[in-house]
């Protein structure tokens, strides 16, 4: 399975894979209970991140674009300064924006500081390909580089299945992040 760095021409496919992979994910029903509304919102929501990471971060993908990983190098503090993020978030999320803001704040306030690392913001595998080892392929690829450089990695798992995948790749759980009136996230460090 080949891994490559995605480019600007992959925006539609990267956005689509992210939206489809998370459509029925662990946080989906809490963020937006109605699935049809969620599908529409997720298309715009994940486009915000796909655009930013394709231009300023690192997006790795399998050759078929059925799996994507969005990585961000963190020096001493997470600083994802996405231009117009607040306005875009309100526009794409509509009435659900409050829950997205709660999630963002909980993750941002719990993000480790003072330790350089790479942050895995999203790992997404299209639902038709989940269980085929694509996520593991992307993780092994990036970890080979991080290990060579001696750089740790951090992420937030959204549930037990994801946590188990990351544990198999050397991540260890930290204290859960509690989202007010919402789900828990499981920060992990490698």
Please write out the topology.
Elements: E1 3-5, H1 11-22, H2 28-31, H3 35-56, E2 58-62, E3 67-74, H4 85-93, H5 97-110, E4 117-125, H6 134-149, E5 153-157, H7 160-168, E6 172-173, E7 177-178, E8 184-189
Parallel strand pairs: 4-5
Antiparallel strand pairs: 1-2, 2-3, 3-4, 5-8, 6-8, 7-8
Organism: Dactylosporangium fulvum
Domain N-acetyltransferase: 1-190
InterPro entries: Acyl_CoA_acyltransferase, GNAT_dom, Trichothecene_AcTrans
What characteristics describe this protein?
Aminopeptidase, 8 strands, globular, eight-stranded mixed sheet, Trichothecene_AcTrans, alpha+beta, 7 helices
Integer tally of domains: 1
The poorly predicted ranges are none
Shape: globular
Sheet of most strands: 8 strands, mixed
Number of strands: 8
Mean pLDDT: 96
Class based on secondary structure composition and strand pairing: alpha+beta
Could you state the CATH homologous superfamily?
Answer: Gcn5-related N-acetyltransferase (GNAT)
Percent strand: 15-25%
Over all CA atoms, what is the radius of gyration?
Answer: 16 Å
Question: How widely separated are the two ends?
Answer: 23 Å
CATH topology: Aminopeptidase
Instruction: Assign a percent range to the helix content.
Output: 40-55%
User: What is the class in the CATH system?
Assistant: Alpha Beta
Order of helices and strands: EHHHEEHHEHEHEEE
Helical run tally: 7
CATH architecture: 3-Layer(aba) Sandwich
């Amino acid at each position: 399975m080949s891994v490559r760095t995605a480019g600007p021409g992959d925006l539609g496919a990267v956005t689509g894979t992210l939206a489809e992979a998370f459509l029925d994910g662990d946080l989906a029903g809490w963020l937006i209970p109605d699935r049809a509304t969620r599908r529409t919102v997720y298309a715009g929501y994940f486009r915000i991140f796909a655009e930013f990471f394709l231009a300023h971060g690192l997006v790795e993908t399998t050759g078929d674009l059925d799996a994507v990983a969005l990585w961000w190098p963190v020096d001493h503090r997470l600083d994802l300064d996405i231009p117009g993020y607040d306005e875009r978030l309100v526009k794409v999320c509509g009435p659900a924006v409050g829950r997205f803001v709660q999630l963002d704040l909980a993750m941002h306030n719990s993000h480790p500081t003072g330790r350089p690392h790479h942050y895995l913001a999203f790992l997404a595998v299209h639902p038709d390909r989940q269980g085929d080892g694509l996520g593991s392929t992307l993780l092994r690829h990036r970890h080979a580089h991080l290990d060579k450089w001696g750089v740790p990695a951090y992420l937030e798992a959204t549930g037990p299945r994801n946590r188990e995948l990351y544990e198999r790749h050397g991540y260890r759980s930290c204290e859960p992040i509690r989202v007010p009136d919402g789900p828990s996230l499981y920060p992990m460090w490698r």
